[in-house]
Amino acid sequence: MSDGAGELAVPPGATWQDLAPRLRRLLDGSPDGPGVLTVATSGSSGTPKRVRLPGAALRASGEATAEALGGHGRWVLALPTHHVAGLQVLARSALAGTDPVALDPGAPFTAEAFAGAVARLGAPPAQAPLRLVSLVPTQLARLLDHPAGTRALRELDAVLLGGAAADLHLLDRARTEGARVVTTYGMSETSGGCVYDGAPLPGVRVDVDVDGRVSLGGPVVAAGYVDRPALTAERFRTDPDGTRWFLTDDRGVWRAGRLTVLGRLDDVVVTGGHKVEPRDVEAALRRLPGVRDALVVGVPDPEWGQRVAALVVPADRPLPTERLRHGLRPLLPRHAVPRQVVWSDSIPLLESGKPDRAAARELLARA
User: Fold this and answer.
1) Whole-angstrom Cα distance, residue 180 to residue 171?
2) Rounded CA gap, 41 and 202, in Å?
3) Where are the domains of the chain?
4) Concatenated DSSP letters for 286-324?
């Protein structure tokens, strides 16, 4: 479980029992503990990279989260621990002095299993009074589709939602049902989520350049990548005042004093000279009756350069494609209406829970 002296590497399947002692020493800065933790990125931009997170960055992230939520808590662990969102559940538990309640990592995620885990949280201890969980949107949608899952969500003080863009309809639905959802934005390079509901956590800084590219700064930022000095120099910098910054691959904009993330730089579809934001098309698709979920990508096209292509999950059974396109015309400009629609039982996901756009693009290109 070690990459070398002073480093704690998190392997797939690592449990709280595996990591807790060394994680506590890392967070405390103990001389006999590891100096940094290495964790793999999700791989959403290609080959996963290994990120070096000092204990001070993890501690800063955990303490800022507690400040933003109103205190420490006891956590349900519903995400893989070798990716940063699941790992942070363990780190926050270590800071709170509590033990997380873990779902079986080898079993499918179900509402019944989640409800059982929430029930096992029991009465929260005085030093960590909140009951908390971190989820991805697919998990939240499954819980809302089941009465036991919905009831369990209401029992929690906060549901951190990250890993992928949250559909506004899903958020409205969850909050209407009484779930206290907090959207999060961040990545392995920032010790996980560092912007909550569009507002930076205490100590975190956000910069959006003239092209809309987002940079994130503060004590939560990683030391760099393992064995990737050139990429580390390209993406990380330290200002004269000591602030550490990470240059993301995301585009964003400030709206009413809050950060709205528009998507990745390479997600924009250029079709016939027009730029199309996949998230706008996905949101419009989810508004249509008969659509449960959707993922939109650009697929190479000899006439248009790229065609807007959609992988769509039906709520019941697939609709006629022209009927679907007709429903989108009042919601989108003509060039943004998908030229290709493929119905699927599910959206392909990375292990971290993020949509696998590369897999969707390959499937749509073959169709």
Assistant:
1) 10
2) 24
3) 7-261, 268-366
4) HTSTTEEEEEEEEEEETTTEEEEEEEEEESSSPPPHHHH
Fold agreement (7-261, 268-366): no
| Angle ∠(170,145,16) on CA atoms, nearest 5 | 85
- CA separation for the pair 36, 26 (Å, rounded): 7
What dotted CATH number matches 7-261? Answer: 3.40.50.12780
**Beta carbons within 8 Å of 335's beta carbon, 6+ residues apart:** 271, 272, 274, 276, 308
As a whole number, the mean pLDDT across the chain is 91
DSSP 334: G
**E-state strands within 176-266:** 181-187, 192-196, 199-200, 205-208, 213-217, 224-225, 236-238, 244-255, 258-264
What are the residues whose beta carbons fall under 8 Å from the beta carbon of 268, sequence distance 6 or more? 251, 275, 276, 277, 278, 298
Q: How far apart are CA 135 and CA 152, in angstroms?
A: 13
Q: How far apart are CA 343 and CA 351, in angstroms?
A: 22
Of 293, 284, 309, 206, whose CA–CA distance to 250 is shortest? Answer: 206
What separation, in Å, do the N-terminal and C-terminal C-alpha atoms of the chain show? 42
Question: Can you tell me the mean pLDDT for 333-352?
Answer: 90
Q: Are 303 and 268 in contact (CB under 8 A)?
A: no
Report CA dihedral (25, 29, 34, 36) to the nearest 10 degrees. Answer: 120
Tokens coding 98: 């509590």
- Report the distance separating Cα 365 and Cα 367, nearest Å: 6
Give the class (CATH, top level) of 268-366: alpha beta
- pLDDT of 111-147, one tens digit each? 999 999 999 998 877 777 999 999 999 899 999 999 9
Candidates 114, 119, 87; CA nearest to 103 is 114
Cβ-contact 169, 286 below 8 angstroms: yes
Task: Compute the average pLDDT of residues 177-191.
Answer: 97
Neighbour-count burial of 255, counting CB atoms closer than 10 A to its CB (0-12 exposed, 13-18 middle, 19+ buried): exposed
CB under 8 Å to 311, separation ≥6 — which residues?
Answer: 294, 295, 296, 297, 342, 344, 347, 348, 360, 363, 364
Please report which confidence band the pLDDT of residue 4 belongs to, taking 50, 70 and 90 as the band edges: very low
Contact 27, 39 (CB under 8 A): no
